[in-house]
Amino acid sequence: MSKETSYRDAGVDIDEGNRLVDLIKPLVKATNRPEVVTDIGGFGALFRLDLTRYKKPMLVSATDGVGTKLKVAFWANRHDTVGIDLVAMSVNDLVVQGAEPLFFLDYYACGRLDAEETAKVVSGIAEGCKQAGCSLIGGETAEMPGFYPGGEYELAGFAVGIVDEDRVVDGKNVKPGDAILGLASNGLHSNGYSLVRKIIFDQLDLGPDDILEGVGNSVAHELLRPTKIYVKELLPMVHSGKVKSLAHITGGGFFDNIPRVLPQGCSATINKDSIPKQAIFEFLQKNGPVNEREMYRTFNMGIGMVVIADKKDVAELKHIAEKHGEQLYEIGHVNETGQASHVIVE
Question: Which of 344, 317, 342, 341 is nearest to 330 (CA)?
């Protein structure tokens, strides 16, 4: 008689999944806002929405992943920061519309579940939620043998926020002469990593511990810097009523993201010398080599979030940023154009 076959024999370990839940419960609980009703482990998560603070509340949703930056995490065997990236990519998209993030859900899929490694990923997600002021309310872990290569996983994130209708940031009031301001990035964030890996891994053949010339950090340290979360400094700016438009500088860089938040008849001129220089971008441009337009279309180039406001309100917005430990750089201005909205870097 043949030996009985189990789900574990097929590559799915239910006990390891249960052990993971036990490991991450305290991490998840530490992110809870007062509105959270249920603990993880149920079939759905309950969130008691408090609408008393709003006149005409609107829910805003966003979803994203980490992209091929995950390949760097696998290569360096470091998994505690990519969860911050996952949260950042969604909550930064919420705040550009003036929304306060309320809760976050994650999806983690792998070929073979390692509870300790996965718990490190979730610790990063929990940290990102704390930075954004939202709750990690639930998620899904999928062990899929034969679907993902050994030692690799995929991440996706889903965020929901809320904004009063009269505080939605939509860019409709942007006009020629308005100032374009920027909040600094924390390095590469989570975009352009296919190009980064081609230059650093394939062309330069560098390892995780090699020091990047002119940058001063190891490859792993520099490439795994987590994406900056801008919620806590941007919401006070939005609530001041002085912000006309916001752009999260992600894939597509300056050239694709800024036009998304400009009304018809407006274009943007960016003064590249006003942007704080970061050595990693100079390293990539030199060693690619990569032409300047490609750099500004692929990377954030040192500015992770763009703020557009009336010139007379710049001082007040800079003051708000300083109160939250940030510097707001004046990096350009809005122009009138008879063409489609576009960006000029000069």
Answer: 317
